[in-house]
């Protein structure tokens, strides 16, 4: 499989990029907010976060960081799976468990992000916005696909064990 090394490099790059963005976000944004150097932040669609109190801003920062960490953890489990896949251990328990965990974490991060956006609109803009945005839909699809893939790999592992015993 020629695609596994490329996929491994891309996932590693993406994982470390996500970590770098998280560190910059958590380190620089509070400093800019505390020194009033932020004139306008539009992280949440349609709402200017620069008018928030320090406590409100901290709560938003913490909750968005937790959601982002869930996503980073999901990518980490994918990254860990690629070690076994590159060694042609396609049906190892580690790969199956990591795909399942990664799928659940991506699904959870998507749901948490949708709830986060709903609550922001409800609390700060006093309006109820219902709908399915693209990020929620993509996270749901990818999460469910990875969970399905772990089930397929589990069935493949059992079939491989049966074939090994038969021979």
Helix content: over 70%
Rg over CA atoms: 20 Å
Mean pLDDT reading: 85
Tell me about the largest β-sheet: none
How far do the termini sit from each other?
25 Å
Strand content: under 5%
Encode the helix/strand succession as letters.
HHHH
* Uncertain ranges: none
List key phrases describing it.
single chain, 167 residues, mainly alpha, 4 helices, elongated
Explain what you see.
It is a single chain. With 167 residues, this protein is an all-alpha fold. The chain has one domain (3-166). The protein has 4 helices and no strands. The chain has helices at residues 3-34, 54-86, 93-124, 134-166. Helix 1 packs antiparallel against helix 2, helix 2 (54-86) packs antiparallel against helix 3 and helix 3 (93-124) runs antiparallel to helix 4. The radius of gyration is 20 Å and the shape is elongated. The mean pLDDT is 85.
Reconstruct the topology from this structure.
Layout: H1 3-34, H2 54-86, H3 93-124, H4 134-166
Helix pairs in contact: 1-2, 2-3, 3-4
Question: In a nutshell, what does this entry contain?
Answer:
Helices cover 78% and strands 0% of the residues. The protein is mainly alpha-helical and 167 residues long.
